Amino acid sequence: MGMLGAIMEHPEELYPLVKLKMAAARIEKQIPAEEHWAFSYTMLQRVSRSFALVIQQLGPQLRNAVCIFYLVLRALDTVEDDTSIPSEIKVPILESFYRHIYDRDWHFSCGTKDYKVLMDKFHLVSTAFLELGQSYQEAIEDITRRMGAGMAKFICKEVETIDDYDEYCHYVAGLVGLGLSKLFHASGSEDLASDSLSNSMGLFLQKTNIIRDYLEDINEIPKSRMFWPREIWSKYADKLEDFKYEENFVQSVQCLNDMVTNALMHAEDCLLYMSALKGLAIFRFCAIPQIMAIGTLALCYNNVEVFKGVVKMRRGLVARVIDQTNDMSDVYGSFYEFSSLLQSKIDEKDPNAALTLKRVEAIKKACASSGLLNKRKIHFCESKSRFSSVLVMVVLLLPILLALLLIKL
Description:
The protein has about 400 residues and is mostly helical. The chain is built from 20 helices and no strands.
């Protein structure tokens, strides 16, 4: 569906889209003057436009620390993902990466497109890192060291069991959750969250990405790297790549549902983590990606399109999440609604239907028991008829407002 069709069907999303576009334009005008900081914030926009938006609401010192933390780990991930690098070269780089962030001259050419630029000029990220406060530097170094060691371990190890899957996701994403909790605490804004809850925040996002990106990952050239655990997928096929072929789509969807059900186990921990946050800026920074994750899982569940292309939340809905997520009533409401959407798609004949239903009902119960569902101000799954008057206004204002959306977010 094109932009015009999406807006006509969901007119309530037009205003948030315009606001998001204007916010993106403002960010581009607020790039710092110093070369190393200008490079860091410019690269952040290029490698993750959505992250560049949500990070802006953080205070200046914490924002700088989170920006550099993200770029350091993105660079580490670029080394891990580059399948053209021989293992005997890649593993030592991953294991020693935490030392390179202190070296103003170090860089390593790998990756493609914007990621190659990041790696070629990584010394500018290191320069910015060295201007952070010591507590921020120590937290970033610790997580980079642990993540690099974990990535190196899985260069030579396949994801066979569900325990392997959880361990890999811990290294590449759970540790991000731990690191962010340390940065929040170092800023003086938040209590230090438990490692367990911090880990779940990362795993929920990572598992969602692994599920959503099946087709892109399996078709990667020169060689795919897949992280769906054999313990799950081998129940449905002899080879992981079999799922992309039409004749196997029944089994493909059953495996997909199994993977989604596995990811849902982390949702309640995520709700607990977010409910303990004190500051609005950090809360929004954490809550927006989590809502997008539960929304994406609801879209992917029982959806064969995962094996044909990209399944993701439409831009207008993402804009609404970014614009209208402000407190836990919004989070509970979103998790409840998207869980209900997922529940409506459960086929009782699916091999994991009972377990999926159990986990969805547990999420909905956690949301309902908060007592905040009736206080939420937004609904992401509203009926279209409610917006008939808005639709008339949209038709009248469409030529003006669409001009602001010509460039993709």
